[in-house]
Amino acid sequence: MTDNLPYIDEHTVRVDAPRRAVWHGLRWYVESLLRGAERNPLVALLGPQPRAGFDVAESVEEQRLSLTGRHRFSRYRLHFELSDAPGGGTCVHARSYAAFPGLHGSVYRALVIGTRLHVVATNDMLHGIRAAVVGKSR
């Protein structure tokens, strides 16, 4: 469904915690995100498949997790990858790929990518993942 999608961008956050803790924080965040999106009536307007907007397409423990989905205006993949941070800790990388077919897709791309809303949303996800890890370690 989302193979060969055009690359959009990559964002990274450093988490001062071991990879195992970051992995659990990432999984917790993604599960919370999917549960919350299923109940969001605004998400339904886009007609996402799956209903939550994303589905876990790949999960390799303590290494990477890929989410895929589609809706009326786009097909997309969000790929999280963990790497060791210099000096300790873990980096969480979020790479986005998406296609926006047709006129409506082009308009949607301008609204989401062109206004940098996507950047804000992706960075918010990364900070949420970091907060999940920091909150669990207290």
Characteristic terms for this protein:
138 residues; alpha+beta; Alpha-D-Glucose-1,6-Bisphosphate, Chain A, domain 4; five-stranded antiparallel beta sheet; 4 helices; 5 strands
Task: Write a brief structural summary.
The chain is built from four helices and five strands; from the N terminus they run E-H-H-E-E-E-E-H-H.
Low-confidence stretches: none
Strand content: 25-35%
Number of strands: 5
Written as H for each helix and E for each strand, in order along the chain, the element string is EHHEEEEHH
Distance between the termini: 40 Å
The global form is globular
Q: Nearest-angstrom radius of gyration?
A: 15 Å
Number of helices: 4
Return the CATH topology: Alpha-D-Glucose-1,6-Bisphosphate, Chain A, domain 4
| Second-tier CATH architecture | 2-Layer Sandwich
Describe the protein in words.
The protein is an alpha+beta fold. 43% of the residues lie in helices and 32% in strands. It has one domain (7-136): START domain (Alpha-D-Glucose-1,6-Bisphosphate, Chain A, domain 4), CATH 3.30.530.20. The chain has helices at residues 19-38, 41-46, 102-114, 117-136; strands at 7-15, 55-60, 64-71, 74-84, 90-99. A five-stranded antiparallel beta sheet has the order 1-5-4-3-2. Strand 4 (74-84) and strand 5 (90-99) form a beta hairpin.
Topology, pairings included?
Blueprint: E1 7-15, H1 19-38, H2 41-46, E2 55-60, E3 64-71, E4 74-84, E5 90-99, H3 102-114, H4 117-136
Antiparallel strand pairs: 1-5, 2-3, 3-4, 4-5
